[in-house]
Design goal:
The chain is mostly helical. The protein is built from three helices and no strands. The chain has helices spanning about 5-30, 35-65, 75-85. The protein is elongated, with a radius of gyration of 17 Å. The relative contact order is 0.11.
């Protein structure tokens, strides 16, 4: 994983960790369900962005690792399988 992607992913994960702590506090303070669910949706969206970033990086590395610039069916299928599993 490239340093810039790694730094971005780590920053996003730290932000997500902070959001989760905030949700935990909201539950402890008996905040409204709609507010809590809104924050959970925000965390979920953030996790999806992290996952897509990692899948994109994997795909790029997989495709660029070939000397001739061509990818095999198996390599493409591997990336597609990851994406499908992630989007479920």
């Amino acid at each position: 994983m490239s340093k810039s992607i790694k730094d971005d992913v780590l920053l996003r994960l730290k932000t997500i960790k902070g959001h989760i702590a905030g949700i935990e506090k909201m539950v402890e303070e008996d905040k409204g369900c709609s507010s809590i669910l809104l924050q959970i949706a925000a965390v979920r969206a953030s996790l999806e962005k992290v996952g897509l970033s990692i899948i994109n990086e994997h795909a790029e590395q997989c495709f660029l690792s070939n000397e001739d610039g061509k990818i095999t069916y198996e390599e493409l299928q591997s990336v597609v399988d990851l994406l499908v599993k992630f989007l479920k």
